[in-house]
Amino acid sequence: MGSKRFPGKSLKKIDSKNRLIDYVILNALKSKYLNKKNVYVLTSKLKNNIPLINHIKKNYQINIITGSEENVFSRYKLLNKKGNYAILRLTGDNPLIDPLLIDNFLETFFKKKIDYLTTRAMEHSSRWKTKSSFPKGISLEVFNSKNLFQKELEFNKCNFEFPTWFFFNKKIKAKIKKFNSFGNYKYLSKNLSFTLDNHKDYIRLKSFINKNNCKPGENNIWNTF
């Protein structure tokens, strides 16, 4: 909610009924691997997030963790449980992540026994030269918790904002892979963008959603082609 480029964007309506956060949550809940018990919203304790938290509590029976605004990694520390488990990271400004894509992404992670899998290109990393085969805004990361928290003492203000910094900068001894596009996703132009970063993105996404009759929790991008 505290976005400097587009304040309050999490609760902006992107169709006649649904807000940005509704798409993100419902997309996740439609995955066969996810449910209300293992979906968490990690946000900050700032007052401007209270309307967002209230909206989630009113409409969804999922977990909410509040922590530092600037130290995103500290929110993951609050999620830290005993043992090793997979953490799938979806960002709150990408409303068109298909459940089908989530399922295929997680199946690859488990089947290949990878420690860190991503669709992303890491512009802020000098050691991750791999380009994404998806347009901007189709962004997923999944990783084993043991690899994330083993570097806990080394996190500092330079990388607090990026919880997976040690993966894509190859500071962790781990099996790291890029997830490639497949099927209908291969027809997407890399010049497209499905992220909501500013008001221009907002207008473009609303137009795309209206034109293609998109609905939260459906395979909207896949079914466009």
Strand residues, percent: 5-15%
Low-confidence stretches: none
Helicity level, as a percent range? 25-40%
CATH topology: Spore Coat Polysaccharide Biosynthesis Protein SpsA, Chain A
Instruction: Please trace the helix and strand order, writing H or E for each element.
Output: HEHEHEHEEHHEHH
Strand arrangement across the biggest beta sheet? 3-5-4-6
Content-based structural category: alpha/beta
Task: Give the C-level CATH assignment.
Answer: Alpha Beta
Gross morphology is globular
**Distinct helical segment count:** 8
Rg, alpha carbons: 17 Å
Name of the CATH homologous superfamily: Spore Coat Polysaccharide Biosynthesis Protein SpsA, Chain A
Average the pLDDT over all residues and give the rounded result: 92
Reported CATH architecture: Alpha-Beta Complex
Total strands: 6
Our measurement of the CA-to-CA distance between the termini, rounded to an integer number of angstroms, reads: 33 Å
Total separate domains? 1
Largest sheet: 4 strands, mixed
Note the quaternary state here. Answer: single chain
Describe, in short, the structure shown.
By secondary structure, the protein is α/β, with parallel strands linked by helices.
Question: Can you characterise this structure?
Answer:
This protein is an alpha/beta fold and 225 residues long. It has a single domain (9-223), classed as Spore Coat Polysaccharide Biosynthesis Protein SpsA, Chain A. Helix content is 30%, strand content 11%. It contains 8 helices and 6 strands.
